Amino acid sequence: MLIWSIVPEEFVFEGMDTVQYNWVERDVQGVKMVVEPLADKPGQGRIVRLLCPKPDSYLNPAFQPGQIVNLI
Predict the structure, then answer these.
(1) Does 8 reside within a domain?
(2) How far apart are CA 27 and CA 18, in angstroms?
(3) What global pTM score does this model have?
(4) Which residue range forms the structural domain that includes residue 65?
(5) How many domains does the structure of the chain reveal?
(6) Is residue 50, in this structure, part of any structural domain at all?
(7) Rounded Cα distance, 25 and 23, in Å
């Protein structure tokens, strides 16, 4: 990774090693994706990224990162 900044790297990367993600891989409607389960809505999750090799999946607005999907 290359970063150009006047901010010292201690500030840029502060806390980066302590971040914990609760991401899981799921197959939703035949599309493999990384999803962050929602604590306030059991059985649902927010799409983080797609892992599917089909280009059509990336063009589907229902599978955009940030969209809510059912995990059950």
Answers:
(1) no
(2) 28
(3) 0.75
(4) 20-70
(5) 1
(6) yes
(7) 7
